[in-house]
Amino acid sequence: MSRFLTPRSQRTQCASCPVRQNALFQVVPLSYIEDAQSRRTDQYRLAARRTLYEEGGQADMAFTLFEGWMLLYRSDSDGRRQGLRIALPGDFLGYMPPGSTHIHHSALAVNNAVVCGFRQEGLHEMMTRHPDLAAHITRIQARYMASCQSHMLGLGRKSAEQRIAYLVAELFHRLKYRRLIAADATSMPFPLTQEMVGDMTGLTPVHTNRVMRKLRSEGVLQSERSRLEVLDPEVLARIGGFVPEEPA
Amino acid sequence: MSRFLTPRSQRTQCASCPVRQNALFQVVPLSYIEDAQSRRTDQYRLAARRTLYEEGGQADMAFTLFEGWMLLYRSDSDGRRQGLRIALPGDFLGYMPPGSTHIHHSALAVNNAVVCGFRQEGLHEMMTRHPDLAAHITRIQARYMASCQSHMLGLGRKSAEQRIAYLVAELFHRLKYRRLIAADATSMPFPLTQEMVGDMTGLTPVHTNRVMRKLRSEGVLQSERSRLEVLDPEVLARIGGFVPEEPA
DNA sequence: CGGGTATTTGACGACTGTCAACGCCAGTGG
DNA sequence: CCACTGGCGTTGACAGTCGTCAAATACCCG
Known about the structure:
2 copies of one chain form a homodimer. Chain A is an alpha+beta fold. Chain A has helices at residues 33-39, 120-129, 131-157, 160-177, 194-201, 205-217, 233-240; strands at 17-19, 40-46, 51-53, 61-67, 70-75, 81-87, 92-93, 106-109, 113-119, 187-189, 221-224, 227-230.
């Protein structure tokens, strides 16, 4: 648990290079697109294993994730790292309400990612102008909060197998909900390393490996390269105690 | 871990009786008090060990806690319970953004408590009318989110002793920050049972006891009835890895 | 004083972490 | 084309934390 802050893949420092590309807003409601378009910055392409922002840094930008997955995490003074959330395309990252000074977590690109940045100030202005944008952001926060609480329940009270099953079931559900995979898909892209799964579940990479191996031997999962096949979604959800909620 | 849903103190179902009493809003900014006064309901007095609301219920009311402590928790299908947050006087509970149907956690009165209720709809109306109230609520959510993330770090990566030390240090800090105890106080009211401490830290009551005993024998804490004396705040914060953040 | 709850303690075992190696695979450079 | 290298996955042995079960003691309120 000590090799973390500059761990296996010699986690290079953050870097992000502007790129031009068209895409839709997946988070901001349609009615604000015009206003939002004028405020958003260029898009950024972020290489795998680089951080978009880091704990303790200035919180002057928020982002919408367009492509790729990101791992949001927090680490303590001993270098132990705890995953907070896996951000999928369409997710909103790094938002901080007015008056906040620094951000409390870091964001790491799991694979190559594309994000679109907004200045926080711009968002705050928009919120005062469009009251239902404020309501929308409030909803997003509440949804993340609920998910965060589910993870707390897992970290505090579930076994390793349950936590991992929950994580996979949740990701599978979220990908389907956003139509990033077909509704009847039986497999999904899975760019997370076992170490990252361990970060999310509060487990050691070694123990994560053992448990995933067990799930495979039980015929629940099947993994090939960076894909994961869910052989029995029912059992997976039952093991993990995962109950899909409306939004995802 | 199975005796929980109707545990030791035969946790009676929720009940709340209206009461009349004057008090200030501690959460809503002054400028909205007039509007808020017209929207708030009466205050409610809640006996110790009763729930204010429960997971899965309708989310039609939000509350400001005036007196007493509350334990917000979530439980899974096996009856295991995980504490999410200790609400102290001045805290805001049960808020759900527009469109939410049911609440995802339960709120239990640790000791006798007094809350003031607001209809969610009323809050939503106010938010559209007063954009900075929306910003304020957003800030509150972000603060709870940050605290929630700190707890995730603890649940996932810290030892039992560290988690308990963190919890106590955090409560001590929050009480001081809100001037619920003097800035130079060396002790605080501590109505939590060891079981509740275990709920918050993801530990068994039994193991919680052992660890608290250890902290006492190390001369860090001292407990009498429902008070806790912090003999060495420095060491406590260092053990728990607690770093006070601006708001609390 | 009595009943019920909370705290405390001991024995025991399971789950998970730690340490240390090894194999596999992809990308790189010769 | 092939050897090399670094990251990731896999495995085994072992230790320690923490959960479980069970029971005794202390405490609080009526």
